[in-house]
Amino acid sequence: MNPGHSFDLQGSGFTSPRTRDRLITRLIAQGIRDQRVLDILRQTPRHIFVDEALAHRAYEDTALPIGHSQTLSQPYIVARMTELLLTTGPLTKVLEIGTGSGYQTAVLAQVAGIVHSIERIKALQDKARERLSALGLHNVRLRHADGLQGWPGEGGYDAIIGTAAALGVPSSLTDLLAPGGRLVLPVGGPQSQQLVLVTRLADGLQQQVVEPVNFVPMLGGVV
Ligand code: SAH
Predict the structure, then answer these.
(1) Residue of 16, 73, 117, 192 marked catalytic
(2) Cα separation of 211 and 216, whole Å?
């Protein structure tokens, strides 16, 4: 924690509850149906996940820069990915690749028993840790590493989410799914990406293409 750092969790003006409600109305119009997801997005202060200079744009349905050439995902896509993971019921143990700002992590922490989140850029991880702690979300463990290597000694995840685009579906991640578990991940290069949902069934993996998306690339190594 950064001592003395305080966040305006309630928000006012462009970050007020009224502004947040407008975002939720928009998400419903775009087809987000899961009430838990809508409630969590309404309650989670997205404005603390960006620099103060961008806080007034936090409840627009748009991706926002978080430094290091990375972006906080668009609220619609955060809602959509979370909804896809929740269709089979509450989540026990979730793995996230790409903590970034920690916003998606904060959303997941409110629907899962425990969230493991891996980020390759230390500076982003440090800020995310501060925000998650300010929100009192203590069921999150963060790791500074290449997420494609998984979490040593861990597996049996009922949900895995990738928030950066991989060139294919990595078996290093599908191997970590519990039976019935789901992986949601953008797949493709910079020109064309699809959101892919992979479910681990008794007789193998079932893959479903959800919709076109636009994510930063999944990269190897740590910085
Ligand atoms: N969910 C985040 C998205 C951040 S952008 C948010 O809403 O803020 C994607 C993130 O994935 C970046 O922070 C990037 O550094 C991270 N990333 C990319 N490749 C990675 C890898 N192999 N392992 C871990 N993190 C990775």
Answers:
(1) 73
(2) 16
